[in-house]
Amino acid sequence: MVELTLTPGSLDLSTLRKINNSSVKLSLAKHAESQIAASAQTVQNVINEHRTVYGINTGFGLLANTKIADDELELLQRSIVLSHAAGIGEYMDDSTVRLMITLKINSLSRGYSGIRLQVIEFFMQLLNSEVYPCVPKKGSVGASGDLAPLAHMCLPLLSEGNMRYKGNIISAEEGLKIAELKPLTLAAKEGLALLNGTQASTAFALQGLFRAEDLYAQSCVIGSISIEAAMGSRSPFDARIHDIRGQRGQIDTAQVFRELLDTHSQISDSHVNCEKVQDPYCLRCQPQVLGACLTQIRQAAEVLLCESNGVTDNPLVFADVGDIISGGNFHAEPVAMAADNLAIAIAEIGALAERRIALLIDSNLSKLPPFLVENGGVNSGFMIAQVTAAALASENKSLAHPASVDSLPTSANQEDHVSMATFAARRLGEMANNTQGVLAIEWLASVQGLEFRKPLKPSNKVQNAKTLLREHVSYYDKDRYFAPDIEQTNTLLSEGKLCDFIDSNPLPSY
């Protein structure tokens, strides 16, 4: 369990990664309470002074010009939560909901949302009790906030909806008993403050970021194994090549490969004077391609860290001067574009890995037995495993199409341009699974290739990566039921074991 005393607006990526991976015990820094109270009082002053302010005593969206009577304000806030809880599809994983609630607490606690401390404490208690609202994955267009997902997140406040505890679906009433909580009556602005915001799309995008980082690291390790298996050259990783281009991601990636491959190995020494002039791009250009992916990962990380600490509801309360200003911070275009760039990076990591598999099984290129198996013809070896990798890489090409360029007007054209950030981020999980599947097959293929280079040994780290795999998957000496090998290797990748092979890790959340 992660224990965190939250200073609002100060979350870092490493902490968010930990919260994604495990439960959290959250408390709030005491100094934040005064700003929260001042913000809530500013909203109450509007009511006391009978002023009309959007989101406090008006309708929402196209109904913004409809004044709401004071005796209906509590009903207004309850109604907005219930009516906006219109999501559909499978429920988000607990990890996604945990991130989403943490992000919402972080945003509200900065004291610009006009919400009472007790509402924030309600959500902290849910997190600390590991009782998570059931939130459908689909239903947000990423503008005017992630309205439907956040509304489902808020239903337990009203003792409505379902929750999940230790993997079991229970009623909100049961969940509140476990968390030792009672339903709350929402005050003016609180429902809107909870529903506006980009926390659902940002949570999905953060998970995509963390997966992309892992895939990058794993691709560097497995790509290094393929270099040794294919008797590739170390020359393309010479620091001088990358320094004179100046691309930081490329420079750092080449450094990672140099550490993994070392200066030489028994395998590399055996072909110093070979006739081959250059390796195919899938080996030679790994610093350039994976370096470009690293640059996109870093850029997305910068955007998502900013969004994780930002205030994204509407209207915003500036208690120091008593102003309440309506704007558009709920528009998730930054998240959508960051997710689109992550999608490209994830797709390219998989595409390059698939090409390395294709090289290894092609005896003309790799000088290894056809399809990496003895007695070819009787044995098909890695023939269809490569087809599976090609299917996964190709599927990612369609999924990588940018979501942020799409928009459908909503709310009777009041909300006439939307970001599609939630889908842009949500699809990253499926894309990451595809690329991880490709890397699993390449890990199997590259280690199989090393078997045919015996008794020559690869670099120490490549040898260690081979040993790790062989502890779980045996040598493919003849055709056998292949799917369990891929599944076991995929599990090893899910556990992140290969990520530890990289010393000078260039990734933002590590």
Automatic annotation (TrEMBL):
<dbReference type="InterPro" id="IPR005921">
    <property type="entry name" value="HutH"/>
</dbReference>
<dbReference type="InterPro" id="IPR024083">
    <property type="entry name" value="Fumarase/histidase_N"/>
</dbReference>
<dbReference type="GO" id="GO:0004397">
    <property type="term" value="F:histidine ammonia-lyase activity"/>
</dbReference>
<dbReference type="InterPro" id="IPR001106">
    <property type="entry name" value="Aromatic_Lyase"/>
</dbReference>
<dbReference type="InterPro" id="IPR008948">
    <property type="entry name" value="L-Aspartase-like"/>
</dbReference>
<dbReference type="GO" id="GO:0019557">
    <property type="term" value="P:L-histidine catabolic process to glutamate and formate"/>
</dbReference>
<protein>
    <recommendedName>
        <fullName>Histidine ammonia-lyase</fullName>
        <ecNumber>4.3.1.3</ecNumber>
    </recommendedName>
</protein>
<dbReference type="GO" id="GO:0005737">
    <property type="term" value="C:cytoplasm"/>
</dbReference>
<keyword id="KW-0963">Cytoplasm</keyword>
<keyword id="KW-0456">Lyase</keyword>
<dbReference type="GO" id="GO:0019556">
    <property type="term" value="P:L-histidine catabolic process to glutamate and formamide"/>
</dbReference>
<feature type="cross-link" description="5-imidazolinone (Ala-Gly)">
    <location>
        <begin position="143"/>
        <end position="145"/>
    </location>
</feature>
<feature type="modified residue" description="2,3-didehydroalanine (Ser)">
    <location>
        <position position="144"/>
    </location>
</feature>
<keyword id="KW-0369">Histidine metabolism</keyword>
<dbReference type="InterPro" id="IPR022313">
    <property type="entry name" value="Phe/His_NH3-lyase_AS"/>
</dbReference>
<dbReference type="Pfam" id="PF00221">
    <property type="entry name" value="Lyase_aromatic"/>
</dbReference>
<comment type="similarity">
    <text>Belongs to the PAL/histidase family.</text>
</comment>
<comment type="pathway">
    <text>Amino-acid degradation; L-histidine degradation into L-glutamate; N-formimidoyl-L-glutamate from L-histidine: step 1/3.</text>
</comment>
